[in-house]
Structure formats: structure tokens, C-alpha cells
Design brief:
The protein is an all-beta fold. About 0% of the residues lie in helices and about 50% in strands. The strands form 2 sheets. Strands 2, 4, 5, 6, 9, 10 and 11 form a 7-stranded mixed beta sheet that branches. The protein is globular.
């Protein structure tokens, strides 16, 4: 059974940092690209970032580019999202997502190309 478990969310002041983690199990983590999406209160789903299966390529939404960094540790089956210079508009539930097709990285910003989600972790940016 595929499982994705996010952690690391919390309440942070504007300008602060958080590091989210996503621990994966039930599949061969190292052969799938992964990503992060978020859902802000009252808004739709927003793709945030993606990383290829070995961590050699990463891509980001314009709204987070330069502030967020995605990485992975295939030995630990863990995906990370380092979030710096956080803004109130980053407030959302963050989900890690698994690419549907093995070895495939194209269309990394298309949410329908991912087939499993975690339960999400709440990130709140407020003073």
C-alpha cells in the first residue's frame, strides 16, 4: 500500500522558515518523480514544486521560486520542502504527491499526472 506522510508544518511569522518532510512507503521511491501541492483557505489546488527521481531536476511555481527548495533522500525514502522567506499568502495545507508513471518527469506541473497524495500538513504564516 502506497503511503505518503507529511510532517513539519506549523505556525511561523512572516519572513520565517519551515522544512516539510514526506516519508514514503509501499513503492520504490527512487524510480518516481515527486512533488508538492498546496491548498490555501478558500482557494483551489496549486502546484508548488516537483523533483525528478534522482533529484537532478527541480521545478517551482513562480509564486515560490527563489524561496522554496525541494530535495529528496532516496536512501531514506523521504521528500523535503525547505521554505524560506515565508509570506502570509503561503498559508495552506501542503501535500506531497507521487508521479503516476515510473521514470517520467514531463508535465511535472500537471496535478493529474500524480496518483497518490499524503494527508497534508498545515502551514500558517501569521504575526
Amino acid at each position: 500500500e502506497v503511503q505518503l506522510v507529511e510532517s513539519g508544518g506549523g505556525l511561523v511569522q512572516p519572513g520565517g522558515s519551515l522544512r516539510l518532510s514526506c516519508t514514503a512507503s509501499g513503492f520504490t521511491f527512487s524510480v518516481y518523480a515527486m512533488g508538492w501541492v498546496r491548498r490555501a483557505p478558500g482557494k483551489g489546488l496549486e502546484w508548488v514544486s516537483a523533483i525528478d527521481r534522482i533529484g537532478g531536476s527541480t521545478n517551482y511555481a513562480d509564486s515560490v521560486k527563489g524561496r522554496f527548495t525541494t530535495s529528496r533522500d532516496n536512501a531514506e525514502n523521504t521528500l523535503y520542502l525547505q521554505m524560506n522567506s515565508l509570506k502570509p499568502e503561503d498559508t495552506a495545507v501542503y501535500y506531497c504527491i507521487k508521479k503516476r508513471r515510473v521514470l517520467y518527469y514531463d508535465n511535472y506541473d500537471v496535478v493529474n499526472e500524480y496518483d497518490y497524495w499524503g494527508q497534508g500538513t498545515q502551514v500558517t504564516i501569521s504575526s
